[in-house]
Design brief:
- With about 350 residues, the protein is mostly helical.
- It has one domain (about 30-340).
- Helices cover about 50% and strands about 10% of the residues.
- It has helices at about 30-70, 70-100, 170-195, 205-235, 235-245, 265-270, 280-290, 310-340, and strands spanning about 120, 130, 135, 140-145, 150, 155-160, 165, 250-255, 260-265.
- Helix 1 (about 30-70) runs antiparallel to helix 2 and helix 2 (about 70-100) runs antiparallel to helix 3.
- The longest helix has about 40 residues, at about 30-70.
- The N and C termini lie far apart (about 55 Å).
């Protein structure tokens, strides 16, 4: 379990202690915030309305109204399966909203830095300070205007669930996408089995269900696949977007001489899927978010710890720093030879 950060004093100029607060990286502009507030308050009615239509069109009109007349036992089984899948979809959706994206606990309120750990910093090497939450930002943390808190491993705002997704609820977001996809695949399978012989007199509701289910499966499937890959590789959507924009990011790390150095990350340090700076290995990345495999279907949130840079990445920074120091030393020798 990661320990709270402790103050560090070091001889070089890159002191880890932040001398002045920095402006928090608010993730929403005023117009975008208003738009997302509108989505947040109205998306629930849209989702509930669509689900109500599916219950009417699929369960009542097709399964009970048509299939039950010839296959009553099958109709009851279909309704039970659909009801279970639909119930789990609502459970995961509520888990997204109730658990939330996560926050920074009291263990980070000491405004201190672990002596040996590498951490994200500004270009001067100072720890990044959130003047809204009044504490240093742990690695991968961003202040969100949506929740007005610092969110660990903030990923994205999802208009389809009406909430911010972060480390605290991305597991439930994946579960919601998967359960939605499974539910709609089940709907299409039932329609193909029991409605294929109704063409050209197929129920109008069946046509609408085919279209809506097909589109939703593609959308939910792509979302689930994309974000599960991010989880596997240790990425977040926000980090990849930031790297793609070319935003400057810096790391303060302990060099071989016992002093700290500050290194600016290049675009490919983050924007390469198999080289995430925070990846701890595929299985560990999955376990950190999803928990043990037997808890994957359950709406149970895993503990949130401060992410640490992986050792291979820090070693790569040290090797890069070695080359910089060697080049500087060679240039100094050349200058001395010329002056001599």
């Amino acid at each position: 379990m990661p320990q709270p950060r402790q103050d560090v004093s070091c001889a070089d100029k890159y002191s880890t202690r932040a001398k002045k607060p920095e402006e928090p990286d608010k993730d929403l502009r005023p117009f975008a915030q208003k738009a997302r507030d509108w989505v947040r308050h109205h998306v629930y009615f849209v989702l509930v309305g669509l689900n109500a239509y599916f219950i009417y069109a699929f369960c009542y009109s097709i399964v009970w109204g048509r299939i039950s007349k010839k296959h009553k036992g099958a109709a009851i089984a279909i309704l039970c399966i659909y009801g279970t899948l639909n119930f789990m979809m609502y459970v995961y959706w509520l888990a997204i909203l109730l658990w939330g994206p996560g926050g920074i606990g009291s263990q980070y309120a000491s405004n201190s830095i672990d002596g040996d750990a590498a951490f994200q910093c500004n270009m001067q090497g100072y720890s990044i300070y959130c003047s809204y939450c009044k504490h240093l930002k742990p690695n991968r943390t961003h202040h969100s205007a949506f929740t007005d808190t610092c969110v660990p491993a903030m990923d994205h705002f999802c208009p389809w669930v009406g909430y911010l997704i972060g480390q605290g609820n991305i597991k439930f977001f994946l579960q919601f996408c998967w359960s939605t996809g499974f539910t709609l695949v089940f709907v299409i399978i039932v329609l193909l089995i029991y409605q294929h012989n109704q063409i050209p007199n197929i129920n109008n509701n069946a046509i609408v269900l085919y279209i809506l289910s097909g589109l939703a499966i593609l959308f939910a499937g792509s979302l689930a696949s994309q974000h599960f890959i991010y989880v596997v590789m240790g990425h977040t959507t926000l980090e990849l977007m930031s790297a793609k924009r070319g935003d400057s990011q810096y790391v303060n790390f302990l060099w071989r001489d016992g002093h700290r150095r500050v290194m600016q990350l290049n675009r490919m340090d983050i924007f390469v899927y198999d080289q995430s700076p925070f990846s701890q290995g595929i299985w560990n990345n999955i376990r950190e978010i999803m928990g043990p495999f037997y808890t994957w279907p359950l709406p149970i949130r895993e503990p949130i710890y401060e992410p640490q840079f992986n050792k291979a990445f820090i070693e790569k920074l040290r090797e890069r720093q070695d080359k910089i120091e060697e080049q500087a030393l060679n240039e100094l020798k050349d200058d001395c030879d010329i002056s001599g």
